[in-house]
Amino acid sequence: MVVFATSVFLLLAFIYWRTAGFMTAQTDETIEAEIAGLAEQYRGRGINGLITIIRERVARDPNAKSIYLLTTDDFLKLAGNIETWPEGARSESGWINFTLNQDVGWRGPERLARARIFEVQGGLRLLVGRDVDELTNLKRVIETAINWGMGITLGLALLGGFLMSRSTTRRIEVINSTSRRIMNGHLSLRIPTRGTDDDFDQLAENLNQMLDRIVYLMEGIRHVSDSIAHDLRTPLTRLRNQLENTLMSVDNDEAREQAGRAVAEADQLLATFNALLRIARLETRGNTADMKPVSLDSLVSDACELYEALAEDKEQVFEQALEHQVMIEGDRDLLFQMVSNLIDNAIKYTPEKGTIRVVVRRDGEDCLFEVSDSGIGIPDDEKDQVFQRFYRVGKSRSSPGNGLGLSLVSAVAEIHQARIELSDYRPGEENPGLTVTIRMPAYVVEKKRIRTTQIDPQSGASGGEQRNSPSESSNV
């Protein structure tokens, strides 16, 4: 808008400068021509001839455009159509701009004039000028037109800039919104194009091609890891069974101990492969889970009841703050695994006599599930990486585990459109602990009236559930 308005302003200013300058120069040339004619009369007929020609011109047209005044050196009028010398700033070349009014003896209406003054031989003074009132009015008209033109230009520039900005912003927002959805896990989406082959379409096509390449590479890596997990699970299971048979057949205590450790290692490997396959199935499953109304507080209460014994073995304080009737929509089995994993992690990484706190509450239109512990915590620079497969925090590398628990939690949260937030439970302490907050959309009964008449949330939350033992949940 500024560039457009400045360009138009410079163009109009140039037109005004050339037009006004041309009209002013034309007036000066007319005055110079009259002065040349009077000078020729003066040279041919003397002072009397000069007075005579001035009087003749004034008598012929007393209200003419030309202005004349011839006086003696003491300003006594000899001829002319004004009576006295006008007041005004006089330039070095003798030009003066003044007002024709009664003060100078002008008999007509007040007008603007421009004249040139010079001295004639014999001490006489001569003023020759022109009425420039029409020229001044014309300049005002041009200035008014320029001002209106600038106003219209600014209006058009604002309108055009708004429309262009709106169109550009709309295109950019489409790219941004699609990119945000892709970053949230919807890798099948692509940025739409208009088919105009403009810069935005070319950018969208380049981004889409880049996404296709990324998805292709990710699918290749995922396929390799899933294939390895699937192919190795069967021989590992056979190996584990053979080790267990060996454990049962040997009589030597040392051999039995070694065989027992081998069985435990095989169980850990099988748990890792099962977790990998479980995460792969969840990521492939997307949002096709069996979504039903679930009482989150009832589900979490069942999980807490299952894990309280583990916390008691470590003499940990196990606190619960469960708000009643906190309803969400989701797959109960998946949600139970997510909750179990988080509680199991909290117990595992909290030292003896530490504190575990589990909270369920409503927060506006969301339902919150929080698990806090007074354990080792997660450094701020690693909180964005703990959801990656096999990633383990430096402090916890010596503890048993495979680094897949939070990956499974992230996969379940993605299916339920939930957001995960990590924060310190006790900021500033040597062991700040960790608070994991799962923020899920609340179940709105009014929008599901037909379904809620067929499903009892209480029975759906507590009936037909299958509990896992703590060891089985942690392995998953």
Order of helices and strands: HEEEEEHHHEHEEHEEHEEHHH
Which oligomerization state do the chains in this entry correspond to? single chain
The CATH architecture term of the largest domain is 2-Layer Sandwich
Radius of gyration: 48 Å
- State the end-to-end distance: 61 Å
How many separate domains make up the residues? 3
Verbal overview:
The longest helix is centred in the first third of the chain and has 59 residues, at 2-60. Strand 9 and strand 10 form a beta hairpin. The chain has 3 domains: 2-137, Beta-Lactamase; 210-282, Orthogonal Bundle (Helix Hairpins); 289-475, Histidine kinase-like ATPase, C-terminal domain (Heat Shock Protein 90). The strands form 3 sheets. A 5-stranded antiparallel β-sheet has the order 2-1-5-4-3. The relative contact order is 0.07. By secondary structure, it is of the alpha+beta class. It is rod-shaped, with a radius of gyration of 48 Å. Residues 446-476 have low confidence and may be disordered. It starts with a helix and ends with a helix. The protein has helices spanning 2-60, 133-183, 199-249, 253-285, 296-313, 332-348, 405-415, 449-452, 457-462, 470-475; strands spanning 66-71, 77-80, 95-100, 111-120, 124-131, 292-295, 317-322, 327-330, 355-363, 366-373, 419-423, 434-441. Residues 236-272 form a coiled coil. This is histidine kinase. Keywords: Coiled coil, Kinase, Membrane, Phosphoprotein, Transferase, Transmembrane, Transmembrane helix, Two-component regulatory system. Its main location: membrane. Residues 166-219 form the HAMP domain.
